[in-house]
Amino acid sequence: MKSDEHPEPIDYRFTLANERTFLAWIRTALGLLAGAVAVHTLVEPLGAAGLLRAAVLVCIAMAFLLSIGSYRRWCAVERAMRAGAALPGPGPAPILGAGMTVISVLAAAAVVLS
């Protein structure tokens, strides 16, 4: 083991895996944003506008939170790997799970009411 002045290099595969995970979260956020735009543009005029507007706003909020959360997680994982510490918890996954639950309920209610 090397001293603190010269830490052991991280295996590049772990750094690249961390980057791929970050990019996957960003793609998910982009998909949510695209879905929000599509629902707002194509579906909202058909009926149940209030529920669909709420679903659109939840999608936009989730995209925002996932973008920030994924960057923070990427940084935290990089720091932990460089320090040889335990990796942080689940990151933005609970945000996505909770948000998708809300969107599913709103979409189901919109279908039932229209």
From TrEMBL:
One of its GO terms (cellular component) is endomembrane system. Its main location: membrane. Residues 13-80 form the DUF202 domain. It is a multi-pass membrane protein. Keywords: Membrane, Transmembrane, Transmembrane helix. Pfam families: DUF202. This is DUF202 domain-containing protein.
